[in-house]
Amino acid sequence: MKKDFKHIRNFLAQQQQRYLYRSPRLNHSPQQPDMVIDGEKILTFCSNDYLGLANHPELIQAFQQAAANYGVGSGAAHLINGHNIEHQRLEEALAAFTGRERALLFSTGYMANLGAIGALTSKGESLYQDRLNHASLMDAGRLSDAKMWRYQHSDMNNLQQRIARSTDTASMIVTDGVFSMDGDCANLKELANIATEHQSWLMVDDAHGFGVLGETGAGLVEQEGLSSDDVPVLIATLGKGAGTAGAFIAGDHDLIEFLIQSARTYIFTTAMPPAIAAAGCKSLELMQKETWRRNHLQQLITQFKQGADQLGLPMMPSDTAIQPILVGGSDKALCYSQQLLSQGILVTAIRPPTVPAGEARLRITLSAAHTTQHVEQLLSALGKLNFSTEK
Ligand SMILES: *Cc1c(COP(=O)(O)O)cnc(C)c1O
């Protein structure tokens, strides 16, 4: 392709015509339900700050204290001289919280996924991924030397068939814990059985379950009562339920030592700022102490689902804080999102390629920072929209 701006301009025009053009909104507030966005006061239902910790005063204080002690930049990669005591503390706390021997920090979830899949797969092996796994997992699969197979969403028969059809050794099965754009959960017990049967790694990316699901908030793996033998590679991000930034991989001592030697996105990148790690430690403490956050969130989910049912909205089958309304066309999703905005409510339209073509949706997310009145307000605004069911 020739490097010219004509091609770029054509592409931009096409995206506009297809209702696929995207631009960031300018936000002047902390992450919380009531925000000022593009200069307007607005009630938001699209954040992944599920527990309402992103703007918690104790997190801010931990961050400030660590910045005073250790400065801002970590200065180097972990293996050079960037591994600060705050990183070490957070890794130990994450290992304890998830019930695993060790944990390893990454700067983002995207990088944790690239690092883990890159290190744990090689040529002549097969990698199996749920079709609806997060884009970072798909990209990791594309970069990997293993052959990637995508099985139908949560279809265990389809996964078994694909494994049976392949002549390579099965090396790894990878799934989102809670599917990020759908809100449903993977069948982890069945996946663990299949992985054991084929002597394959099972890796779970619990970005949307961590902090939110399970008795203590350790995530979907805890909720399903599975051990580190069942799910040897556990990944979660800290920028969602934990309200900070970064990600971690938790597992056995040997797995983590292996990743330290081999995961390129661990080795060749600057460690996250120590103050972020300090805030992460505080966040883990609050997750465990303030159990009301999970309980309240659960109540809001129930309240919302009941209200949405009464309104007859085309909801997707989800029991988590992610409650998408499936509308189909990107034009419609944008239109509904705009109509909500004119009522003072922000729910973003999620369009391809984030979701499959023809499956655009309004992705509503609830947070422990919302009140029951907020949810009533949302339901009343949704009640004023005219959802047609034809595509
Ligand atoms: C958000 C997300 C990621 C990426 O995490 P970041 O820390 O934002 O890079 C990875 N996997 C899933 C399932 C996600 O939802």
Automatic annotation (TrEMBL):
Belongs to the class-II pyridoxal-phosphate-dependent aminotransferase family. BioF subfamily. It is an enzyme of class 2 (transferase). It comes from Leucothrix pacifica. The keyword Transferase applies. InterPro entries: Aminotransferase_I/II_large (IPR004839), AON_synthase_class-II (IPR050087), AONS_Archaea/Proteobacteria (IPR004723), AONS_Proteobacteria (IPR022834), PyrdxlP-dep_Trfase (IPR015424), PyrdxlP-dep_Trfase_major (IPR015421), PyrdxlP-dep_Trfase_small (IPR015422). The modification N6-(pyridoxal phosphate)lysine is found at K240. Pyridoxal 5'-phosphate binds at G109, Y110, S180, H208, T237. Keywords: Biotin biosynthesis, Pyridoxal phosphate, Transferase. It comes from the Bacteria. Pathway: Cofactor biosynthesis; biotin biosynthesis. It holds the Pfam family Aminotran_1_2. Catalyzes the decarboxylative condensation of pimeloyl-[acyl-carrier protein] and L-alanine to produce 8-amino-7-oxononanoate (AON), [acyl-carrier protein], and carbon dioxide. The keyword Transferase applies. One of its GO terms (molecular function) is 8-amino-7-oxononanoate synthase activity. One of its GO terms (biological process) is biotin biosynthetic process. Its cofactor is pyridoxal 5'-phosphate. Residues 41-382 form the Aminotransferase class I/classII large domain. Its EC number is 2.3.1.47. Homodimer. This is 8-amino-7-oxononanoate synthase.
